[in-house]
Amino acid sequence: MNVEIERKFLLRTNDWRAEVVDVERYRDGLIAETGCGKVRVRLADSFASLTVKSPATGLARHEFEYPISRSDAELMLTTMCGDMVAQKLRHRVIHEGFEWTVDVYEKRLAGIALAEIELDHEDQHIPLPPWVGAEVTGDARFHKRNMMRLSLASAAPLTVEDLLGLAFLAHA
Fold first, then answer.
1. Where is the CYTH domain (predicted)?
2. Nearest in space to 2 (alpha carbons), one of 67, 60, 73
3. What is the rounded distance in angstroms from the CA atom of residue 75 to the CA atom of residue 68?
């Protein structure tokens, strides 16, 4: 069974940069979304994929990821995703033996950077790095689809401060 269990955090400082072991550029596009899940296309420096995700239950959700050709991913991004394409640099960071990813968004989301860690099970203990801030795992303001939608209405790139000011969306 393909289950993704992850936690998401704001960043307190930029000290994570000293622990980066790899960086890759990503373009993620939302192809479809229903109350039962979503379909995303991803084009990265080293791969392309199509992913189907169920809604989260707690920290976990079903995730099915399939490799596709770069040309198919590019075509999907340009013809099926409209304005729902996020661009980011994904930094792989190793801290105390755990692999974190820090996504630094670009373009319309240029003021947003988030740290994520995937877990083996929901109650797994992880040492939090000193550069990690508040946890935003269940906070709807920090779901990529919501960030993208909100950025469409903004004249300037969206920031973490902008998102934190939107209390009405926090647990939507």
1. 2-149
2. 60
3. 11
What total number of domains does the chain contain? 1
**Distances in whole angstroms, Cα of residue 38 to Cα of each of 143, 144, 154:** 12, 12, 24
Structure pTM? Answer: 0.92
- What single string gives the DSSP state of each residue in 113-146? EEEEEE-SSTT---PPPTTEEEE-TT-GGGSHHH
pLDDT digits (tens, 9 = 90+) for 80-95: 999 999 999 999 999 9
The owner of tokens 């040309």 is: 71
- How far is Cα 38 from Cα 63, in angstroms, rounded to an integer? 10
- Given a cut of 60, whether residue 33 has pLDDT beyond it is yes
Q: Which residues of 27-57 are buried (b: 16+ CB within 10 A; e: fewer)?
A: bbbbbeeeeeebbbbbbbeeebebbbbbeee
DSSP run (H or E) holding 77:
helix 70-79
Q: Residue 96 is part of which domain span? A: 3-169
